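R.M. (postdoc): so does anyone remember the format we settled on? I'll just put the structure tokens first.
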């Protein structure tokens, strides 16, 4: 349902077309919970329509989607009229647009203005009604005037109280609370994992999954999915205390027992607002929920009354939107790359598009099943997502834009690098090239061996490995230690100093502990935890080689699957040749990586944030893992404790406080490592 209009199109025809497009996508988003285009592409359509209507006032209409809110409520639910309209927000995408908003306000109001800034949660707007402190109704936004009655479903959301924690004197007879219903990222990942195991449809993003989970006829289904809620606004109200500022009303909601996001901040001017927004744009992925911007509100309620509303939005509030992390673009081709273990991974070649702050031309498609499940085809318009440093991925096709006759893509039968057959093992989702001499595998194995995750040889990245393989200098990882200066000098980019640096880094890597060597060898299924366990239990690579699969499986943290893979890998003659080269070069084959320590943190999850004096972040997390614990990068309800160094992440600290999770200084952290117990 996209449209590429030629230059010179009649304005009236283009406005009609844009209105049809926007209404179509409103219905897909608000009613079906199945959007076809990204928020950024939708915003672009709305902005073009608004610009066209501004340029041609004779085409303006009160029924235009630029003058209306949301979409008509679904007939699947009873209608729920709002006591006060639930309006939308106007958007700003730059500091200049933020300043222009401020100047428009200056024409209406005067005097001191401060701004309450809140994170813009990417969820579903909900109105909750309390009468005499008791939960009585919940409704979606709908078209702003009438929503859908979802009272029974919202009642299953654990963080929403059935009764407000207010005494009779301060409890309004009627209190409407507005906020955002959302699905935490951890819950979204778990839901999609269950969907995949059951062979069901995967949800595209947490917002869609929250909306789909809420709009269930059976509240038990809603209850089975972990939804949450942030209150952000008072709606209709009868009785109760009076407030002078919006921020005071949020404090009241918090005191009443409603969840209010801890990241609300009142700022003095738009420069501070812009800085606040920029900081959260950088840290948006520190949270266990998705945000797509910052909502800026005039804090003084008397100024809000003076400013009033347009047909669809308050003049006293604005959504400052972050750069999009999801965009649509053309899928030019689907190709297959071969990894270090021979794994064949399909990836998308895209018409380059700016997403997540960088230009994306390639994106992962994970495996054969994912391509089939998403049903993306070369020639499709597809949704592409890139969140922070995460590898870009194709979310799915825009089916309404699919050209007729487009054929489904088939996974190739042969390896694109060596031409040998590809094999998919029964019961597995991955496909492999089983040719150990495959040139693509060779490059990836050597590059992984030298990578930071492996032997950490600075200056020996994939590009140089590819060059050395092409020149015949490297056939396997063992040959790295046979490199000399003579064949390197004279190559483009290799002067005396760069060659000396590379050879020095290679020499330095010989001292890496045994667990790093095990990781570097690219043994299938063997990761950091299993490598440390084997190094600690057996102490030398030769003893690991000599061990039977049963002896390897008996090592705590290994198990039969990893044991079989390790034993099979080390028994292969080609791999023995590599190990002999490493031995001859003097590479360390002994362990353990760290002194044996008790596994007193088994089952515990400890988050480290800020700068510690006694440990680097990596050392602190390694100490937790060495004792059997987990050291995730984000705080959740499963977190045991949060270790706070200097300048800790604000979101991690606030989440710990919100969830009641203990926080530890360095002395308390040392006690935890020593005893496995939190200080009393």
């Amino acid at each position: 349902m996209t449209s590429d209009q030629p230059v010179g199109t009649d304005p009236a025809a283009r406005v009609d077309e844009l209105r049809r497009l926007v209404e179509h996508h409103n219905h897909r988003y608000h009613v079906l919970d199945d959007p076809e285009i990204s928020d950024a592409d939708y915003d672009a359509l709305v902005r073009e329509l608004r610009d066209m209507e501004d340029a041609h006032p004779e085409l303006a209409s009160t029924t235009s989607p630029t003058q209306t809110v949301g979409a008509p409520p679904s007939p699947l639910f009873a209608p729920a009229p709002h006591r006060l309209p639930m309006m939308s927000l106007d958007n700003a995408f730059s500091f200049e647009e933020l300043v222009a908003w401020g100047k428009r306000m200056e024409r209406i109001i005067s005097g001191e203005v401060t701004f309450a800034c809140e994170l813009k949660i990417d969820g579903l707007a909900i109105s909750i009604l309390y009468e005499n402190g008791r939960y009585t109704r919940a409704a979606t936004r709908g078209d702003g005037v009438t929503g859908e009655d979802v009272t029974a479903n919202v009642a299953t959301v654990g963080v929403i109280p059935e009764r407000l924690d207010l005494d009779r004197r301060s409890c309004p007879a009627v209190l409407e609370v507005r906020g955002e219903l959302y699905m935490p990222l951890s819950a979204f990942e778990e839901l999609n994992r269950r969907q995949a195991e059951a062979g069901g449809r995967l949800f595209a993003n947490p917002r869609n999954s929250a909306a789909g989970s809420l709009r269930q006829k059976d509240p038990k289904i809603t209850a089975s999915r972990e939804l949450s809620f942030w209150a952000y606004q008072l709606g209709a109200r009868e009785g109760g205390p009076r407030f002078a500022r919006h921020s005071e009303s949020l404090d009241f909601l918090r005191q009443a027992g409603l969840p209010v996001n801890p990241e609300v901040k009142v700022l003095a001017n738009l420069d501070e607002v812009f800085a606040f927004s920029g900081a959260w744009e950088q840290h948006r992925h520190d949270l266990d929920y998705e945000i797509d911007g910052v909502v800026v509100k005039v804090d003084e309620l008397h100024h809000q009354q003076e400013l009033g509303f347009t047909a669809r939005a308050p003049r006293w509030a604005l959504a400052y939107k972050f750069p999009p992390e999801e965009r649509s673009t053309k899928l030019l081709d689907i190709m297959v790359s071969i990894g270090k273990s021979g794994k064949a991974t399909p990836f998308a070649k895209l018409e380059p598009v700016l997403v997540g702050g960088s230009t994306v031309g390639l994106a992962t498609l994970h495996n054969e099943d994912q391509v089939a499940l998403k049903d993306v085809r070369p020639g499709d318009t597809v949704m592409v997502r890139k969140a922070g440093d995460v590898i870009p991925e194709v979310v799915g096709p825009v089916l309404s834009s699919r050209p007729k006759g487009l054929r489904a893509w088939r996974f190739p039968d042969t390896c694109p690098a060596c031409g040998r057959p590809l094999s998919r093992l029964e019961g597995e989702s991955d496909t492999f090239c089983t040719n150990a001499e495959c040139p693509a595998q060779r490059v990836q194995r050597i590059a992984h061996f030298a990578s930071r995750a492996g032997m950490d040889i600075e200056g020996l990245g994939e590009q140089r490995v590819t060059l050395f393989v092409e020149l015949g200098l490297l056939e396997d990882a063992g040959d790295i230690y046979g490199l000399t200066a003579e064949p390197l000098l004279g190559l483009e980019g290799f002067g005396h100093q760069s060659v000396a640096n590379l050879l020095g880094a290679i020499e330095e890597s010989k001292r890496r502990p045994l667990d790093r060597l095990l990781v570097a060898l690219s043994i299938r299924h063997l990761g950091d935890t299993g490598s440390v366990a084997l190094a600690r239990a057996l102490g030398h690579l030769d003893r690991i080689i000599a061990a039977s699969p049963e002896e390897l499986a008996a090592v705590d943290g290994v198990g039969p699957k990893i044991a079989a893979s390790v034993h099979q890998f080390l028994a292969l003659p080609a791999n023995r040749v590599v190990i002999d080269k490493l031995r001859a070069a003097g590479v360390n084959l002994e362990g353990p990586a760290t002194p044996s320590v008790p596994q007193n943190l088994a089952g515990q999850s400890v988050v480290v944030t800020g700068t510690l004096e006694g440990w680097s972040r990596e050392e602190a997390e390694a100490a937790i893992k060495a004792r059997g614990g987990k050291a995730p990068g984000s705080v959740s309800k499963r977190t045991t404790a949060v270790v706070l160094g200097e300048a800790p992440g604000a979101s991690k600290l606030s989440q710990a406080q919100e969830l009641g999770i203990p926080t530890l200084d360095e002395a308390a952290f040392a006690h935890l490592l020593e005893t496995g117990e939190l200080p009393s």
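R.M.: ...and that's the designed sequence above, right after the tokens. Also worth knowing: DSSP finds 24 helices and 21 strands in the chain. Residues 1-7 have pLDDT under 50 and may be disordered.
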